[in-house]
Amino acid sequence: MVVRVTVNGRAEVLDLDARTTLLAALRDQLRLTGTKEGCDRGECGACTVLLDGRPALACLVLAAATDGRAVTTIEGLAGAGGALHPVQQAFVDHDALQCGFCTPGQIMSAVACIEAGKASTDASIREWMSGNLCRCAAYPQIRAAIAAAADRR
Amino acid sequence: MTAFTRRDFLKVAAVGGGLVLTISLPGCKPKAGSAPAAGPIDPSVFVRINPDNSIVITVAKSEMGQGVRTSLAMLVAEELDADWNQVRVEQASFDPKYGEMGTGGSSSVLSNWKPMREAGAALRSLLVAAAAKEWGVDPKDCQTENSFVTHAVSGRRIHFGAVAEKAAALPLPKTVVLKPKADWKLLGKDRVSIISADVIHGKAVYGLDVKVPGMLYAAIERTPTFGGRVKSVDSAKALAVPGVKQVVEIPALADGINIHAGVAVVATNTWAALQGRRLLVVDWDQGPRAAESTESYQEFMTAAVARTGDETVNKQGDPDGILAKATQVFSQTFETPFLSHATMEPMNCTASVTGDQVEVWSPTQFPDWGAQALAAALKTDIKNVRVHVTLMGGGFGRRINPDFTVEAALLSQRIKQPVKVVWTREDDLTHDFYRPCSTHRIEASLGADGLPEAWRHRISTPSIDVFYGPKPAPGWGPNESDGSANMSYRIPNRSCEYTLLESGVPRGWWRAVSTTHGMFAVESMIDEIAEAAGKDPYEYRLGLIDKVWWQQPADSKTFPFNPERLKGVLQTAAAKAGWGRQLPPGHGRGISCGFDHLGYAAEVFEVSVIAGRLRIHRVVVAADSGPVLNPNGARSQLEGGVIQGLSAAIKERITITGGAVTQRNFDTYSMLRINEAPAVIEVYFVETDTHPTGFGEPAVPPVAAGLANAIYRATGTRVRTLPLGLRMA
Predict the structure, then answer these.
(1) Is B191 left (phi over 0), alpha (psi -120 to 50) or beta?
(2) Among B208, B639, B665, beta carbon nearest to A39
């Protein structure tokens, strides 16, 4: 089937099997490999993207369901000319990553956390971010980075 | 002046208007003609200064989140006086000239501390000499700073890139002076991870992101039971899936590599491969291990520690005689489960085999073991094997093993095309090399002074070593009893005994390895007997640390155990935590300390358990692995180590049912999440002025006992079986 979806501001036409997940479409068809696959069942959050501005787990969303909608991945987060999104900058400044594999998902969830107004307290950040596993456990730095990015807004 | 000992292993040459310096690490003989010739840049050089002033440092250790690309590059850049903003890192592909490329055991800083600083210092001296020659001044009057050579008297300055080519023509210095710590500009200061610039844009390439021309994708259905075999396969439905090209049987391969028997579905994309795999109908011969279970292991280990062990790891004094006569013997059993590494990036590897030529792109911690295993399994010379090391989404020891690398190459050889083998989370959790399960029994008696007089420690595990080629027994005990046999308290009559549990479950090296269970038993037991003696558990420990009290296994000759360092971290942790200060009702504080992978760590946990729900309010960590190169990175390793240790202690458990792993995904193999992690982790460095070692592992082993001791103080209940299974508040 054919799916028309805007990915990082670019109109894409995808021809795929109706059962293909958004995650597979992004990684395999569009070669946007910044979105990671950690569990393929919504447990780890590594595949978090923004779908019409709201966080979505790309492994649980069918690509077909994104027809006519807008997807933002980690590759599309920086502004024109490569200006870092405040959350990206905060993740660098706070060294909020170790192996970096879960980081794109963490950053996308963090962007949504701030957008949703849930980054005002440490408790609400921890609650919002609990869907994103980090086996290296950069949790203290991730919390600090999100709080700092939220402050900067 | 520090004598420059490896002059013979250094080579320097001009390349493309810049300069390259190669250095061979100890234990690795330079090959004839290994100096890079002008022309194409040798990808294996350690340091390259380009005419555009960029400095490229090759790192021959694998980056898996421990920050090795950052810390090793800092060693060179410090001595070179490089502008850190112009430093880039390249990952070395496998080449014997690098010597040990294997990344594990908290050893990367340990082994690179001297050679990488020497390389930087030698290069700096060449650049100074070249600039001085050009200016007609004495090199002694020149300085370096931020990638410039300067001459203060005349005010002249020139960028490294502009003198690099001339420097390459000069002879290498006979000696170099390494900076004293007081002169460090980069080292000892916080640096963020050098990989972050790529990571935050999603541009960092992990194994799973590799794409090579003409590549196919494969998913493999592996035997659910360890040691199982394929009896027959019906692949008709799988082959009918659009995109599926082939179904290929993978025979089991032991030989220390341990590839499971399986059936690979090869397709033009991952999704089709996974669809096809679901439609396979495989009839399995379950093999000889299908009756094994967590219960059967438990039964064996419980019986094993109730009798004299098959192997005596050490025995000093007369523990048996004293225990037999003691009026009171304190005796406890401690149990820990199998653990999975559960790296966020599941195993995977891309391989291309053409004739006798083998090329792989692998997220591997040990490209050298990988290359040897590839050569052996594919029956080719190691000279025909190329191993490219990708970034890896966590390692923790899992990626030491070459199984996933060799498996992909064998498949590529069979289908005569490049292929990426993708493991699902279920594959990864059910076919790991697990941290062994263990049962420990410690019996102890106290003297009239309340101090321990005798200590008999019996351990049973399925050994890691025996899984990779049996040694003649006895011989498995020393490694399995790390943290147990060599526990450092002053106990004159002591013994450690070991009994092997036969098991078909693959075992491997999980962050900090055997100390993760040994120290749980030892640090829990010492807490119990301190209480029995009516002593404070911190003071009790401190009073028992004074020298090396164990004779076997032999202590390291190069880095012997230093009791003052263990006391140092213990005192620091206790002081910073406010040990002895009153806590709110329902709260408890627990302490633990130990020595692991040449590093010393002590930890204090403050917890509460209210209505059955555990909350970790505060963790204080004091660590001594010598001078800290990158405090940011070291702190991350200690915090990450504590949280991973807590995750294992509270939640993680692999169980075996019918010879197979029960857990399938993160819903049943649950790990600590950000909302459950401690609210506060404070890290304090005790920087003994010595050769630096690693921070990746030493913080992990004290965690479980420290937590259990804190829970006891909060609740009055001792936890002796892991995981706790408590719910988090």
Answers:
(1) beta
(2) B665
Which of the four pLDDT bands, split at 50, 70 and 90, describes residue B97? Answer: confident
Please state the length of chain A.
153
- If you write DSSP's letter for every residue of B341-359 in order, what string do you get? ---SSPPEEEEEEETTEEE
Tokens of B37: 């010739």
Give the residue from chain B lying closest to A25, CA to CA.
B271
CB–CB of B129/B151 below 8 Å? Answer: no
- B interface test, pick of A101, A108, A128 with most B CB neighbours within 10 Å: A101
Q: CB B717: neighbour CB atoms within 10 A? A: 10
pTM to 2 decimal places: 0.95
pLDDT tens column, B669-719:
999 999 999 999 999 999 999 999 999 999 999 999 999 999 999 999 999
A97·B199 Cβ contact <8 A: yes
**Residue B128 vs residues B148, B161, B167, B177: alpha-carbon distances, Å:** 9, 12, 8, 13
Q: What is the DSSP letter of B306?
A: T
Which residue reads 């040994």 in tokens?
B518
Averaged over B297-316, what is the pLDDT? 97
Asked if residue B346 has pLDDT above 70, the reply is: yes
SS3 assignment, position A112: helix
The pLDDT tens digits of the residues spanning B147-179 come to 999 999 999 999 999 999 899 889 888 888 999
Task: Find chain A residues with C-beta within 8 A of B395's C-beta.
Answer: 99
Report d(CA A132, CA A103) in Å as an integer.
9
Which residue reads 């995808």 in tokens? A14
Q: Do A135 and B677 touch (CB under 8 A)?
A: no
Mean pLDDT calculated for residue range B422-426: 98
Burial of B251 (0-12, 13-18, 19+ CB in 10 A): exposed
At position B354, the amino acid (one-letter code) is T
Of A77, A88, A129, the CB nearest to B674: A129
Burial class of residue A53 in the structure, from the number of CB atoms within 10 Å of its CB (0-12 exposed, 13-18 middle, 19+ buried): exposed
Q: How far off is chain B from A118, nearest CA to CA, in Å? A: 14
As given in the structure block, the two tokens for residue B304 are 């094993």
| ipTM of this complex | 0.98
Do A101 and B344 make contact, defined as CB atoms within 8 angstroms?
Answer: yes
Residues of B in contact with A14 (CB under 8 A): none
B497 burial type by CB count under 10 A (0-12 exposed, 13-18 middle, 19+ buried): buried
Question: What are the angstrom distances between the C-alpha of B110 and each of B30, B192, B379?
Answer: 21, 21, 34
Q: Is the pLDDT of residue A24 over 50?
A: yes
Distance of alpha carbon B399 from alpha carbon B347, whole angstroms: 8
> For chain B, how far is it from start to end, CA to CA, in angstroms?
57
